[in-house]
Design a protein that fits this description.
With 168 residues, the chain is mainly α. The protein has one domain. It has four helices and no strands. Helix 1 runs antiparallel to helix 2. The two termini are 92 Å apart.
């Protein structure tokens, strides 16, 4: 389906063609009525003569149109295609530039993060803090067995399933 601007331009071309043909028919009727060119008493001869004349005029008008207007339209189409291609190339170049910029930013952040990690590993205060936090888990885990103590009885006794015993 055609878009609206193309449809409107096609309609304008058709209306222009109809108007042009109407003007040529009107001119040929005027020439015939004024008996200015090849007038004959026979209708058939006049019809053939004016048909050939109209065809010749339309052919010449089409040739002039092609010679003048079509060349201009082809140039406009070529220019439009070149502009479209240039804008596509520009967009592609901008996308490549943005992608390269993002990659550089990511690399920069990676380098910054690696430097911060090195600084943290070298800092004695950080090492002391990590030691206090227990990040050295193997050294700080108890090696002895835990003592098992009985729980305190604070009133009622419980059954093994966790419910309270009745009547005591």
């Amino acid at each position: 389906m055609q878009s609206s601007p193309n449809k409107n331009s096609d309609e304008l071309r058709i209306l222009g063609l109809i108007s042009f043909v109407s003007i040529l028919v009107g001119c040929s009727i005027a020439v015939f009525d004024a008996r200015m060119w090849l007038y004959d008493d026979e209708t058939y001869t006049n019809a053939i003569t004016y048909t050939m004349g109209a065809f010749t005029l339309q052919g010449m008008a089409y040739f002039i149109y092609k010679m003048l207007a079509q060349d201009s339209m082809d140039q406009k189409a070529l220019l439009s295609n070149m502009q479209r291609s240039m804008s596509r190339q520009m967009q592609a170049q901008q996308m490549r530039f943005a992608q390269a910029q993002m990659e550089m930013e990511i690399k920069k952040q990676e380098v910054t993060f690696a430097k911060q990690m090195e600084d943290l590993e070298k800092d004695p205060e950080v090492q002391q803090y990590l030691g206090l936090m227990g990040l050295d888990a193997e050294q700080q885990t108890p090696q002895h067995k835990a003592e098992e103590k009985e729980s305190l009885h604070l009133g009622r006794k419980r059954n093994t399933d966790g419910t309270y015993a009745k009547g005591e």
